[in-house]
């Protein structure tokens, strides 16, 4: 799954496994929600410093939340997926930089770097006929063929590339003073999450066409 998915928010969206759907959702998007709520409740006041202080507090809460998410994944699911490991390492690394430099730009930049990394990994694997999404998720999409995993890897790679470009555009707008951090955060939490679910739905036909096992009672 995505994992939370750059010192600021960033669960990385991915197709949900067939089992433990609600738990995977909480693990992937819970830390991001913690960041959002912490920022909203601690960024009172006026001026850029107040917003930056709220972002720093949100980042600290996000770092704690991602560690808890990884622990819950290990406890309840018996494993921590490679994607969650990568997201956790990036979140903690960029989070530490954000706190150290006291600069919320690291928060805005992080998604671009993470999206780009996953896009390169997935599309690079697809180019060499390696379904990297299958290895990253280790999820129970029973029956999906290698051809199906390759198609999913390509599609999600392109999706991550598009997200990275969009996030970089927003970063440039923020730097130019034409977009606020609050607006970016709202888009990041709600817009990207909704878009990720919609994109996941568009991939269901690909999975069904390539052997996804449908539980009894849902075949009709």
UniProtKB/TrEMBL annotation:
<feature type="transmembrane region" description="Helical">
    <location>
        <begin position="107"/>
        <end position="128"/>
    </location>
</feature>
<keyword id="KW-0997">Cell inner membrane</keyword>
<comment type="function">
    <text>Plays a role in cell envelope biogenesis, maintenance of cell envelope integrity and membrane homeostasis.</text>
</comment>
<dbReference type="GO" id="GO:0005886">
    <property type="term" value="C:plasma membrane"/>
</dbReference>
<protein>
    <recommendedName>
        <fullName>Inner membrane-spanning protein YciB</fullName>
    </recommendedName>
</protein>
<comment type="similarity">
    <text>Belongs to the YciB family.</text>
</comment>
<feature type="transmembrane region" description="Helical">
    <location>
        <begin position="84"/>
        <end position="101"/>
    </location>
</feature>
<keyword id="KW-1003">Cell membrane</keyword>
<keyword id="KW-0812">Transmembrane</keyword>
<dbReference type="InterPro" id="IPR006008">
    <property type="entry name" value="YciB"/>
</dbReference>
<keyword id="KW-1133">Transmembrane helix</keyword>
<feature type="transmembrane region" description="Helical">
    <location>
        <begin position="183"/>
        <end position="201"/>
    </location>
</feature>
<dbReference type="Pfam" id="PF04279">
    <property type="entry name" value="IspA"/>
</dbReference>
<feature type="transmembrane region" description="Helical">
    <location>
        <begin position="48"/>
        <end position="72"/>
    </location>
</feature>
<feature type="transmembrane region" description="Helical">
    <location>
        <begin position="149"/>
        <end position="171"/>
    </location>
</feature>
<keyword id="KW-0472">Membrane</keyword>
<feature type="transmembrane region" description="Helical">
    <location>
        <begin position="21"/>
        <end position="42"/>
    </location>
</feature>
């Amino acid at each position: 799954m995505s994992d939370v998915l750059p010192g600021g928010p960033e669960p990385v969206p991915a197709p949900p496994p067939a089992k433990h759907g609600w738990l995977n959702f909480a693990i992937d998007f819970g830390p991001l929600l913690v960041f959002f709520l912490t920022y909203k409740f601690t960024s009172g006041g006026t001026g850029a410093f107040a917003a930056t202080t709220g972002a720093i507090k949100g980042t600290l809460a996000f770092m704690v939340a991602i560690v808890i998410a990884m622990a819950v994944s290990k406890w309840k699911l018996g494993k921590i997926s490679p994607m969650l490991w990568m997201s956790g390492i990036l979140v903690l690394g960029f989070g530490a930089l954000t706190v150290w430099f006291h600069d919320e730009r690291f928060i805005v930049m992080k998604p671009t770097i993470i999206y780009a990394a996953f896009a390169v990994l997935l599309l690079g694997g697809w180019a060499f006929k390696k379904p990297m999404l299958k290895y990253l998720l280790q999820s129970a999409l029973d029956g999906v063929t290698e051809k199906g995993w390759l198609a999913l890897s390509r599609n999600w790679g392109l999706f991550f590339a598009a997200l990275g470009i969009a996030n970089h555009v927003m970063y440039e707008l923020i730097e130019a003073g034409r977009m606020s951090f609050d607006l970016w955060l709202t888009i990041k939490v709600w817009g990207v999450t909704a878009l990720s679910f919609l994109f996941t739905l568009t991939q269901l036909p690909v999975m069904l066409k390539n052997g996804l096992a449908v539980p009894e009672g849902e075949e009709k």
